[in-house]
Amino acid sequence: MKRLTVALVTALCSTTLLAAEKPYIGIDYQMGTYTQNNTDVNPEAFRLRAGTELNSYLAVEAQAGFATASDTYAAKGITFDIQVDSFYSLFLRPQLSINNAVSVYALLGGTYIDVSSTSSNPTASPSDSGFTHTASYGVGIDFNVKNDIRIGADFVQYMDDYNAVSIGVRIPIK
Questions:
Q1: What's the rounded mean pLDDT across residues 61-81?
Q2: How far apart are CA 108 and CA 22, in angstroms?
Q3: What sign has the CA pseudo-torsion 110, 89, 169, 146?
Q4: What CATH number did the domain enclosing 47 receive?
Q5: Residues 42-45: contacts with CB within 8 Å, 24+ apart?
Q6: For residue 24, what are the contacts with CB-CB under 8 A and spacing of at least 6?
Q7: How confident is the model at residue 84 (pLDDT cuts 50, 70, 90)?
Q8: Which domain, by its residues, includes 32?
Q9: Which neighbouring-strand residues pair with 173?
Q10: Cβ atoms of residues 88 and 63 within 8 Å
Q11: What's the rounded Cα separation, in Å, for the pair 82 and 91?
């Protein structure tokens, strides 16, 4: 898995590849659902994307996300503040253009994600934080607004306990 990650990052950053293919960047707002102790909380994040279309059916995409808002829940008299501090993902993106205006895609890859749970009473229930590596997958749709600038939405299962819906814009690098 580590070799695949290094190979994909190297390919994504290759200037030759970027010159020959269709690179893009994107920015998204993300509303997540994190499940802890059978309770759903909804932390929010800001996501940056960069990728390149290798051909009309396949792209490679890297994502980085950072917390913008946390959510809380209470259990046994203790309040927990849940936040997705950051995540870094690398995906293969098979895609299909329905026409020049609409395309659908899947995301298949891996994520390093840091979720923190801060307890109001650390003695009774300690706080927890740390990075986890996990397989990730998702689906999405985007719409060509003008000159390959795309507005889109996707659903990604980043880890077993965390998924997110994102809405944003994708801009080609020319």
A1: 86
A2: 19
A3: negative
A4: 2.40.160.20
A5: 42/71, 43/67, 43/69, 43/70, 43/71, 43/82, 43/83, 43/84, 44/68, 44/69, 45/84, 45/87, 45/164
A6: 49, 50, 51, 52, 53, 148, 170, 171, 172, 173
A7: confident
A8: 2-172
A9: none
A10: yes
A11: 26
In order of 3, 29, 33, 44, 90, the CA distances from 10 in angstroms are 10, 27, 32, 30, 12
Total number of domains in the chain:
1
Taking the C-alpha atoms of residue 115 and residue 92, their distance in angstroms, rounded to an integer, is 24
pTM score of the predicted model: 0.81
Q: What's the longest Cα–Cα distance across the chain? A: 58
Q: Count of residues for the chain? A: 174
145, amino acid identity:
V
pLDDT band at 81 (very low <50, low <70, confident <90, very high): confident
Distance of CA 14 to the CA centre of its chain: 22
**7-16, 84-93, 113-122, 146-155: least confident range:** 7-16
Higher pLDDT, 24 or 71: 24
Closest by alpha carbon to 103, among 137, 66, 65, 151?
151
